[in-house]
Amino acid sequence: MRTISIVNQKGGCGKTTTTVNLAGALATDGFAVLVVDMDPQAHASMALGVDPEEVEENLYEVLVEPDASGRLDGVIVNASRGIDLAPAGIVLSALEQRLAAENQEARTERLAAALSSLGREYDFALIDCPPAVGLLTFNALRASEEVIIPLETSSFAIDGVQKLLETLALLMERVGHTLSVRVLPTLYDGRTRYARETLGEIRELFKDLCFDSVVRLNVKLREAAREGMPISLWAPNATGAADYASVAMEVAMGPPAEIEAGADAQVGAAREVVIEYRDSQANDVRIAGDFNGWVPDRGVLSHVEANGRTRVWVKVLKLPPGIYQYRYFVDGQWRVDPENEESSPGPMGQTNSVLYVR
């Protein structure tokens, strides 16, 4: 089970939205997902249709016990197909005071112990953290191998995330616990020059730590939360559903280190392959496939040419003979190659273009 904390000390950046809708997208792709709501406000629980006032027990009853192992299975409820939930409640806000007398290590290992004792089979555990780096967040980080930081496309938010990354680095050094960290741009409005420039700053600043997917502003995401379900169920054709499907694809391919190792494993007598993408409206075009671990433009030589009003993105690949699947990543959205009629169902259910190298 891959355990991922969704963390940011800033409120309103899309933590709960990301937790719930990434869970929905992963479940749609056939994965079994556990959502762990560590926020006393219980917004993730409510966004999955569970009223925190109506559940008999929540995470507080699990984490307050000296031995948290074996208790979590009893509070988990089913939220929708493929998604189970460990609900939160306002009583979680009292946990830090309740455990004040215990040593730091014992207090921060409660959730890790609870998750390790689960008798159910999950592919992912997604932990929605509160907007503060306190005991609840420390528990989440100690239980996780990966962290996703939702980051709204604003300069103030960038400054806050830089401070959070420093905090995570100190935590990893202090407890000897390594985390794979990625930044997810959210609340993106591509209609504004400010948002486009800020997104460019985010990509330049965080480089490989940044998701290639972008979550755009979409009112359907708020509507889905109000209805108590992921957007993949409420409005599967909405842009928000497409955005989180893209995020899920990147997450499912593994942490960045695993993706890079997979990309570097490609061996053989390489051939130079040139393919082109034409579009008069696009601003950013990248290519990803099983030849580079599905990381857009990793290991690809790329340049842009002008053909009248149409821009042509030229992608130069060096590949051994074989059959490859690929897609374009155009302005934050996955697309098949419009000039290639060869296609095949991908491992995540999306249609991929097929490239033959002889």
Overall radius of gyration: 21 Å
Instruction: Output the number of helix runs.
Output: 13
Report the CATH superfamily of the largest domain.
P-loop containing nucleotide triphosphate hydrolases
Average pLDDT metric: 84
Strand order of the largest sheet: 3-4-2-5-1-6-7
Strand portion: 25-35%
Overall spatial form: elongated
Number of domains: 2
The total strand number stands at 15
Low-confidence stretches: 262-267
- What composes the largest sheet? 7 strands, mixed
> Which structural category do the helix and sheet elements fall into?
alpha/beta
Residues in helices, as a percent range: 25-40%
Order of helices and strands: EHEHHEEHHHEHEHEHHHHHEEEEEEEE
Could you explain the architecture of this structure?
With 358 residues, the chain is of the alpha/beta class. It has 2 domains: 2-252, 3-Layer(aba) Sandwich (Rossmann fold), CATH 3.40.50.300; 265-357, Immunoglobulins (Immunoglobulin-like, Sandwich). The chain has helices at 15-28, 43-47, 59-63, 95-98, 104-108, 110-116, 135-143, 155-175, 193-206, 219-227, 231-234, 239-252, 256-264, and strands at residues 2-6, 33-37, 77-80, 83-86, 124-128, 146-152, 180-186, 271-279, 285-289, 301-307, 310-319, 322-330, 333-335, 343-345, 351-357. It has a 7-stranded mixed β-sheet, sandwiched between helices. Strands 9, 12, 13, 14 and 15 form a 5-stranded antiparallel β-sheet that branches. The longest helix has 21 residues, at 155-175. It is elongated. The two termini are 39 Å apart.
